[in-house]
Every structure is written in structure tokens, then in C-alpha cells.
Amino acid sequence: MLLSEVLDALAPLDGARIVDGTFGAGGYSRALLKEGARVIGIDRDPTVAPFVDALTREFPGRFAFVAGPFSELDALAGERQVDGVVLDIGVSSMQLDQAERGFSFMRSGPLDMRMGREGETAADLVNTLSETDLGNLIFAFGEERASRRIAKAIVAARETAPITDTLELAQLIEKTVGRKPGAPHPATRTFQGLRIAVNGEFDQLVGALFAAERILPEGGRLAVVTFHSLEDRIVKRFFDQTKTAAPRSRHLPYSAPVEACWAPVRKAVRAGSAELGRNPRARSATLRSGVRTSIAARPEQAAGLGVPGFRRGAA
């Protein structure tokens, strides 16, 4: 997504060492390598192995891969010098296209959604959370206005039998809220909310942003592509410290402006008509990027970044 724009944001690339924190099928890594960069790929999904092997053979000595969560990219990169970091947030096309992974509401498959194949599945959440917790989750992480109705329908349906199939859940949601012609599938936001919860995506994103801030030297570049407003808000506030600084009363003595850890590369970039023609999934993609300044890295914290909250048992 936004490949040429990402390359521009990370330039110059010839001889640079770049961390591709969300390797996936290796699209960014391959493009970076073709531009002359040295790349460290990171991913927690074990199914990326064939793509790793292909790049290792094609670019010997210039590509390395480390398995793990991108929130730990500074530790995973080790002592290597790093000039840039790229992050492509959310589910990959590769994962959506594999019905057995349970990410897509367009294909029948197990209601899984785990990127790393560990921990609770989406089916676990759908079949064990209380109606209140399920509604809160879908609203907070999916921004679904019909979250209460959907949660009520799910709880009623699972009394007959557990919900374990993606199409079964998608059809239940469509039956509950209806479907308007030309509108996105009514299950889109519910599936988004479940996926985010299963994979702890907001915690991962915050961790990755601050890991990049720690590992990049002055002049290092960070490019982040997001696919919905919740992610984009976090990234926007991370780069712009005026958004996260504590408000000050005009009656207090003057204090110097907050010294920024990042200087902007360019304004937020969205997919143009040419890319949308090639890849309709890019319609919601947004690229934000920054250049590291000499200011010391901040302590890692989610406060002020607008991270949505969900807590089990909350009213």
C-alpha cells in the first residue's frame, strides 16, 4: 500500500538499513531491497516463511529476518545500525486471502484471527464474553454504532450452539442490522474490533512507535501506513507532541515549547486514483512519516495518544 510514497518518505535508500516491522508477504522489503537498501524483516506470523526464504535467496547478504512482534523491533534488530523503519498496520492481504486464518467475513473459515497463532481466538471472545463486554469491545475497537444489537444477537445465537465459523458470524450480523446497497459489509466493523482485541493491536502499535523512536538516530526516518481512523489518530498524535502535551493555563508563567522528537517529512498521504484502481483495499490507507531529531526518546506511554479503551467487566 502506498509503496512509492513510502519509498519517498524513507529516502535516501541506497546503502541504508531499514527495519520492515510488518513483513507480511515481503512487498515493502522487496521494494526497499531493489532500491539498494539492506533490510531487516520482522513478523510474528509463522506463515511468512516462504516469502522470507525467497528474499533470502534473491538478496543474499542484504536481507535478514527475525521472528517476533513488531512492538519489540528495537530489541529484535539487536545492535545493528538502523536508518529507517516502516510499519504497515493491521491485517495483510495475505492473511485476508487465507480463509483458514479466519480474518475474512467473505469466506467460510474458523473464527480464529490470531496473527501469531497463540492466545485467545475470536471464537473464544464471541462465545465467552458477556453481552455487555462484547458490545463494549465491538464499539470501542470497531466503532460500530449497532454494537449493542449485534452483541445481543450473538449471545442469543450461541445459546443454541457456539459460533465458530466466519460466514456464520457475518450472516448473523447482516441479518441483525441489514445491508444497504453499495455500503461496506455490515460485519466489517465487528470483525475489525474482534481482530484488534485478539491481537492486542493497539498495544502493539504504541510499542512499535516508541521502539522506533528509541532505535532511530538523528536523521532516521519512520513511515507508518494505517487503515482506519483509530490507528491513524494514534500515529498522528505520536508524531505531533503538541497533541499530547498537557494543557497549560494562560495565567501560568511562560514555558518553552515542547522539544519534538520528530520533524515531519510531509503531510499525511492517501491513496490516489491510480492505486485505488489497482488495489481497492487501499481506499482507507493513510501514510504518516517523520524524521528523528536530536531530542532524547520519550518514555513509552499510551496516555495522550487517543488509544481506545476496553476492559472486561466494565459497565
Automatic annotation (TrEMBL):
<dbReference type="InterPro" id="IPR029063">
    <property type="entry name" value="SAM-dependent_MTases_sf"/>
</dbReference>
<keyword id="KW-0963">Cytoplasm</keyword>
<keyword id="KW-0698">rRNA processing</keyword>
<feature type="binding site">
    <location>
        <position position="43"/>
    </location>
    <ligand>
        <name>S-adenosyl-L-methionine</name>
    </ligand>
</feature>
<dbReference type="GO" id="GO:0005737">
    <property type="term" value="C:cytoplasm"/>
</dbReference>
<dbReference type="GO" id="GO:0070475">
    <property type="term" value="P:rRNA base methylation"/>
</dbReference>
<feature type="binding site">
    <location>
        <position position="70"/>
    </location>
    <ligand>
        <name>S-adenosyl-L-methionine</name>
    </ligand>
</feature>
<feature type="binding site">
    <location>
        <position position="88"/>
    </location>
    <ligand>
        <name>S-adenosyl-L-methionine</name>
    </ligand>
</feature>
<keyword id="KW-0949">S-adenosyl-L-methionine</keyword>
<comment type="similarity">
    <text>Belongs to the methyltransferase superfamily. RsmH family.</text>
</comment>
<dbReference type="Pfam" id="PF01795">
    <property type="entry name" value="Methyltransf_5"/>
</dbReference>
<dbReference type="InterPro" id="IPR002903">
    <property type="entry name" value="RsmH"/>
</dbReference>
<feature type="binding site">
    <location>
        <position position="95"/>
    </location>
    <ligand>
        <name>S-adenosyl-L-methionine</name>
    </ligand>
</feature>
<keyword id="KW-0808">Transferase</keyword>
<dbReference type="GO" id="GO:0071424">
    <property type="term" value="F:rRNA (cytosine-N4-)-methyltransferase activity"/>
</dbReference>
<dbReference type="InterPro" id="IPR023397">
    <property type="entry name" value="SAM-dep_MeTrfase_MraW_recog"/>
</dbReference>
<protein>
    <recommendedName>
        <fullName>Ribosomal RNA small subunit methyltransferase H</fullName>
        <ecNumber>2.1.1.199</ecNumber>
    </recommendedName>
</protein>
<feature type="binding site">
    <location>
        <begin position="26"/>
        <end position="28"/>
    </location>
    <ligand>
        <name>S-adenosyl-L-methionine</name>
    </ligand>
</feature>
<keyword id="KW-0489">Methyltransferase</keyword>
<comment type="function">
    <text>Specifically methylates the N4 position of cytidine in position 1402 (C1402) of 16S rRNA.</text>
</comment>
